[in-house]
Amino acid sequence: MLTFAELRFMLESAGVILRLHKGRLTAGPASCLTDELRANIREHRERMITARCERCGAPSLGFDFCDDCDPFGPPEDDGARA
Ligand SMILES: [Zn+2]
Predict the structure, then answer these.
(1) What spacing in Å lies between the alpha carbon of 48 and ligand 1's midpoint?
(2) Which helix H or strand E contains 2, and what residues bound it?
(3) What digits encode the pLDDT tens for the residues 22-70?
(4) Beta-carbon count within 10 A of 36 CB
(5) Which is it for the CA torsion 82, 37, 10, 73, positive or negative?
(6) Cα 31 to ligand 1 centre (Å)
(7) Dihedral sign of CA atoms 76, 18, 59, 41 in order
(8) What is the Cβ-side half-sphere exposure of residue 49, based on CA atoms within 13 angstroms?
Protein backbone atom coordinates (compact mmCIF):
# COMPACT_ATOMS: atom_id res chain seq x y z
CA MET A 1 0.00 0.00 0.00
CA LEU A 2 1.16 3.50 -0.81
CA THR A 3 1.74 6.18 1.75
CA PHE A 4 -0.52 9.19 1.50
CA ALA A 5 2.27 11.29 -0.06
CA GLU A 6 3.03 8.56 -2.61
CA LEU A 7 -0.63 8.26 -3.49
CA ARG A 8 -1.01 11.98 -4.05
CA PHE A 9 2.06 11.99 -6.28
CA MET A 10 0.75 9.06 -8.32
CA LEU A 11 -2.69 10.61 -8.70
CA GLU A 12 -1.14 13.84 -9.90
CA SER A 13 1.11 11.97 -12.34
CA ALA A 14 -1.88 10.06 -13.70
CA GLY A 15 -3.91 13.25 -14.12
CA VAL A 16 -6.51 12.24 -11.56
CA ILE A 17 -8.43 15.04 -9.88
CA LEU A 18 -9.86 14.53 -6.42
CA ARG A 19 -12.91 16.45 -5.27
CA LEU A 20 -14.84 16.55 -2.07
CA HIS A 21 -18.50 17.31 -2.57
CA LYS A 22 -21.00 17.17 0.29
CA GLY A 23 -18.80 14.78 2.22
CA ARG A 24 -18.28 12.41 -0.70
CA LEU A 25 -14.86 11.95 -2.20
CA THR A 26 -14.78 11.55 -5.95
CA ALA A 27 -11.83 10.87 -8.25
CA GLY A 28 -11.72 11.20 -11.98
CA PRO A 29 -11.64 11.04 -14.88
CA ALA A 30 -12.33 7.32 -14.66
CA SER A 31 -10.09 6.64 -17.68
CA CYS A 32 -7.07 7.70 -15.57
CA LEU A 33 -7.88 5.42 -12.63
CA THR A 34 -6.33 2.01 -12.27
CA ASP A 35 -7.50 -0.68 -9.87
CA GLU A 36 -4.37 -0.02 -7.81
CA LEU A 37 -5.14 3.68 -7.56
CA ARG A 38 -8.76 2.99 -6.65
CA ALA A 39 -7.68 0.60 -3.89
CA ASN A 40 -5.21 3.11 -2.48
CA ILE A 41 -7.76 5.93 -2.62
CA ARG A 42 -10.04 3.71 -0.55
CA GLU A 43 -7.27 3.18 1.99
CA HIS A 44 -6.72 6.92 2.41
CA ARG A 45 -10.28 8.12 1.86
CA GLU A 46 -11.05 8.75 5.50
CA ARG A 47 -8.05 11.04 5.89
CA MET A 48 -8.86 12.95 2.71
CA ILE A 49 -12.49 13.44 3.74
CA THR A 50 -11.83 14.54 7.30
CA ALA A 51 -8.71 16.71 6.85
CA ARG A 52 -9.23 20.43 7.27
CA CYS A 53 -6.95 23.39 6.59
CA GLU A 54 -5.19 24.48 9.78
CA ARG A 55 -5.65 28.12 8.87
CA CYS A 56 -9.14 28.52 7.42
CA GLY A 57 -10.84 25.19 8.15
CA ALA A 58 -11.65 24.44 4.52
CA PRO A 59 -11.45 20.81 3.35
CA SER A 60 -7.83 20.15 2.43
CA LEU A 61 -8.03 16.61 0.98
CA GLY A 62 -5.53 15.26 3.48
CA PHE A 63 -3.08 18.12 3.59
CA ASP A 64 -2.35 20.46 6.51
CA PHE A 65 -3.46 23.48 4.48
CA CYS A 66 -5.85 24.11 1.61
CA ASP A 67 -4.45 25.40 -1.68
CA ASP A 68 -5.22 29.01 -0.75
CA CYS A 69 -3.37 28.83 2.58
CA ASP A 70 -0.48 26.56 1.63
CA PRO A 71 2.59 28.37 2.99
CA PHE A 72 4.72 26.80 0.27
CA GLY A 73 2.36 27.79 -2.52
CA PRO A 74 1.11 25.51 -5.25
CA PRO A 75 3.83 23.19 -6.60
CA GLU A 76 5.59 24.43 -9.71
CA ASP A 77 2.97 27.06 -10.36
CA ASP A 78 4.52 29.23 -13.01
CA GLY A 79 1.27 30.78 -14.13
CA ALA A 80 1.10 28.61 -17.23
CA ARG A 81 -2.19 27.07 -16.22
CA ALA A 82 -5.25 29.08 -17.13
ZN1 LIG B 1 -7.08 27.37 4.10
Answers:
(1) 15
(2) none
(3) 889 999 999 999 999 999 999 999 999 999 999 999 999 998 999 899 8
(4) 12
(5) positive
(6) 30
(7) negative
(8) 13
